[in-house]
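Data availability (excerpt). The following record was deposited with the supplementary files.
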Amino acid sequence: MKGLKSVVWKLLNILGIGGAVNLHLQSGLKEDGWFLSFRKQQSIDKDSLPIPWLTYPFIKFLEPRLSSQMSLYEFGCGNSTLWYSARVREVKAVEHDKKWHQTISQSLPDNASVALKKLEDGNAYEASIITQEQAFDVIIIDGKKRNECVEFAFQALHPHGVIILDNSERNEYQPAKEMLEAKGFKRLDFFGPTPIVAITSCTSVFYRTNNCFNI
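Predicted structure:
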């Protein structure tokens, strides 16, 4: 049997698919549920439960640092909103797409809400965070107009709060990174794969001293 397996793997490697087959059978990608998320085109884990569409390394970093006492604001909503709401005291989010807003709103628990703001309505989308008239412990910037969202995020961030910028490797978000660093934030980058797609991305957390993540 061992000899047969060796022959099979040798044949698969000759065909150039040995690595792909092994990833399906036993790998970190399988444990994270990447193959299932790719097949279903949803941000889910291996048990089909919702997870954020962020890099897997960052999700693993983030989960133990969230607490039931935290308030969180999210630019852009989705399975991440459901995941956050199970781990923090309250989640408030903003979404620009009416159809997606309706879809997510049907699944929200009592401690989560998503406002609908059109991108065409001036700065209504990015300014939605300051209309809440409260300070947030965690602000996730993972939707539209991310550079502009950073400008308003400062005004609604708790002194010990952190800001998370997804897809931070993109040149188009350089202004956002520069604004945050100019305000005295340090940056911690998490490069790696994400659900659904087969590319490497980066999720970055921006923090100051005495932050709620204790980093």
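Summary of structural features: The mean pLDDT is 90.
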